[in-house]
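BUG: 3D viewer hangs when loading the predicted structure for this chain

Environment: internal workstation, default settings.
Expected: structure renders.
Actual: progress bar stalls at 90%.

Input used:
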Amino acid sequence: MNYKESKKILQLIKQAKNILINCHVHPDADSVGGALALALVIKRLDKKVKIVCADPIGDELRFLTSSELIEETDFSKLDYEEYDLFLALDTSTWDRVCGSKDLPLPDIKIIQIDHHKTNSMYGQINLVDYTKKSNCEILYKVFEDWQVKIDEKLAQYLLTGIIGDTGSFQYETPPETLELAAKLMRLGGNKEEISKNLSRSVEFGDIKIIGELLRNAVFDKKHKFIWCAIPYKFIKNYSEDPKLDAVDLLLQGTRGATFGIRMVEKAPKEVSVSLRARDDFDTSKISVELGGGGHPVASGAKIVGMNFNEVVEKVLQTARKYASQ
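C-alpha cells produced before the viewer hung:
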C-alpha cells in the first residue's frame, strides 16, 4: 500500500453516488490530466462525476479526450446539496479551488489529494505528498493501491500531468519520476503529442507578449533576481489568455540570477505573478506572502484590486526581502 489514505478514499467513493472533482484556477496540465484520470476511474465504478473549474481550460489542453466535459463554474452558485463528495485535486488552499478568498468551505465532505508544501490541510481527508513532482504521480500511486489497470487513456492523462509539472523534465526530476514517465509511455502515453501541445503550440499574439516582456526585463544584480512585467493595456491587443511558460524558462535560466519573476496584468487590476528558481531558493515563501503558494522551484500568486504599478512595487519589495535573508 503506497498511501494509508487510499483505502478510506476508495470506501467513501464507493459509498457516494454523485461526486465533484475540481481543476484549480488557471488550470494547467497536471490539474486537467489528474482530474480527467480520476473521473475516468470513478466513472468505471458506475458513479456520477462532474469536473468543475473556476476558469476555462486552455486550448493547449483540448487535445485530451473528454476535456470538453470540464465545466467552467461559478462556485458561489454551485449547489453542493446535489453531491455526496468533493475530490479536491492539486490545490493547496480552498481559494485555489473556487477562485475566491471570500467563499467559505462548503458543507460537503472534502477529500484532497495534493503535492504542495504550502497545503493548508482543508479537507476531511488530506493525502498530501510533497515529495512528488506532480499530482498525477500521486494519483498513479493511489490507482496502484486500488489495483486499477492503467490503459492507454489513463496513461495519456497521467503522463500529461507529469510532463506539464516538470517543465518537460527541465525542472528537478528524480529518477523515479522519469521511470514512471517511461512506464506510462510503454502503456500508451504519447509523449510527442503531449509535448507538441504543451510546448510547441504558441499563438502569434503570445509571441508578441513574450517579446515585450523580454524587452522590459530587469536584472536586479544586488538581490540576484531577474524580473519583467507587462500591463493590461498591452496584453489586450494580443491575447485574452496568453501562455508564457517560455518566459519563465528564460528567466529561470539566466546566469547569475537565483530566481525570476514574471508579472502580467491579465485583466484590469488583476495581476498574475509567476516565480521560478534557478538554484535552491524557495520562491514559495514570496508567493505565500503575496497570497499565493506553490513549490520552492515554481510558485505564483494572483493579486486583485491594486493598480499595476503598485503590484509591481509590492512584488519587488517582497522578493527583495526574502532574497536578502
